[in-house]
Specification:
Layout: H1 6-11, H2 13-16, H3 22-31, E1 33-37, H4 43-53, E2 57-61, H5 86-97, E3 102-106, H6 115-119, E4 124-127, H7 132-145, E5 149-155, E6 158-164, H8 172-175, H9 196-214, E7 223-228, E8 233-238, H10 243-246, E9 268-270, H11 272-280, E10 286-289, H12 293-298, E11 304-305, H13 308-312, E12 329-332, H14 338-349, E13 355-358, H15 361-367
Helix pairs in contact: 4-5, 4-9
Length: about 375
């Protein structure tokens, strides 16, 4: 068993003073290897508390770069980090936070080719991802690699935490056998979240990780903790292992998309270059912005404005806004996700004939160097 150095004894004295914890548990943390998938809203607080607690080896896996919109909740980063690789920035900060631990930067995307081998190098996997494809991939890889999974998820003002695949306990699929229908799920990339929520949920994930490693306390295996921060109400859902749902024989990526499927009769996507050609040619068309008011205040393309929420709840009146069913219509949002959904509703609920969704949204429009009208 590893021994704690003088510096470690000094650093972790509040742990060592706990009668239920003590030096034995601290040594288990020192010898542990934990992989955190995603250095985002959940990963940032989880990583910081695990580093501070003395987890001997931390893996930070994230292929993305820091965006200014991340700074509202991803507290490992600051303005100077915008555009930098998250895994590298996070790893550097964590090393400074606790020089006695090893931090590995893994700046790549998790996939079916690397998951099993990667997970084999760690004792516990913490899932800080934000999409269903990764969540099911992480679960299935944990089952095949026989690794406990610390799960967390957030949505607007609500979060949930659980521990899966722990000592023969339930897996993620025992609770969520299949992902929801993409048509019933809101945008995976544009859902809002109050900034403090991932801090709370990520901290709970770190707590469960420490419990699993040290054997102190009772991990949330077979229990899903749900937390609504608007009311501070908490709910605990109990569930058990489902032998059929939990069985994983091979690792494969689920076929899932966070947008409306493009069927033959559904809306099509139009690239920015072609959209610009249409405008330059003077082609008759109407443009619809389905973002929120605050987004339109930052930047906009000359257009009619009806937020997606009005289409979803059935209160949208495109005709009163001046739109016509027989005029070609281009719908845009921030990145091209909400616009696909709105375009589908225009065609199916309001009988618009020719509707396109602007691929990449106003973000792609701005990156192309085209004029963005600021209000």
């Amino acid at each position: 068993m590893s021994e704690l150095s003088h510096d470690e004894l000094e650093r972790y004295q509040r742990h060592l003073s706990l009668p239920q914890f003590g030096e034995a548990a601290q040594v288990k943390l020192k010898e542990a290897r934990v992989l955190v998938i995603g250095a985002g809203g959940l990963g940032c607080p989880a990583l910081q508390y695990l580093a501070a607690a003395g987890v001997g080896t931390l893996g930070v896996m994230d292929f993305d770069t820091v965006d200014r919109s991340n700074l509202q909740r991803q507290i490992l980063f600051n303005e100077a980090d915008v555009g930098k690789i998250k895994a590298e920035v996070a790893a550097a900060r964590l090393r400074k936070m606790n020089p006695s631990i090893e931090v590995l930067s893994i700046a790549e995307r998790l996939n079916v080719e690397n998951a099993i081998e990667l997970f084999g190098n760690f004792d516990v996997i913490v899932d800080g991802s934000d999409n269903f494809i990764t969540r099911y991939l992480v679960n299935d890889a944990c089952v095949l690699a026989e690794k406990p999974l610390i799960y967390g998820a957030i949505y607007t003002f609500q979060g949930q935490v659980s521990v899966f695949n722990f000592k023969g306990g339930p897996t993620y699929r025992c609770l969520f056998a299949e992902p929801p229908d993409p048509k019933d799920a809101l945008s995976c990339s544009e859902i809002g979240v109050v900034g403090v929520l991932p801090g709370l949920i990520g901290t709970l994930q770190a707590t469960e990780t420490i419990k699993v490693i040290t054997g102190v306390g009772e991990p949330l295996s077979g229990s899903l903790l749900m937390w609504d921060v608007l009311t501070m109400k908490q709910q605990m859902i109990r569930f058990s292992r489902n032998p059929v749902a939990s069985a994983v024989t091979e690792l494969k990526e689920i076929d899932y998309a966070c947008e409306v499927e493009n069927e033959t009769s559904g809306p099509l996507e139009i690239e920015v270059a072609e959209f610009c050609d249409w405008i330059a040619d003077g082609r008759p068309l109407q443009v619809l912005d389905v973002r929120e008011d605050w987004e339109r205040a930052m930047a906009r393309i000359d257009s009619v404005h009806i937020p997606l929420g009005e289409f979803v709840n059935g209160t949208a009146d495109p005709f009163s806004a001046g739109l016509k069913t027989d005029v070609p219509t281009v719908v845009y949002c921030a990145s091209g996700v909400r616009s696909l959904r709105a375009a589908d509703i225009l065609m199916n609920n309001h009988e618009f004939h020719s509707v396109w969704s602007l691929s990449g949204g106003i973000n792609a429009w701005a990156q192309s160097g085209e004029l963005v009208i600021f209000s």
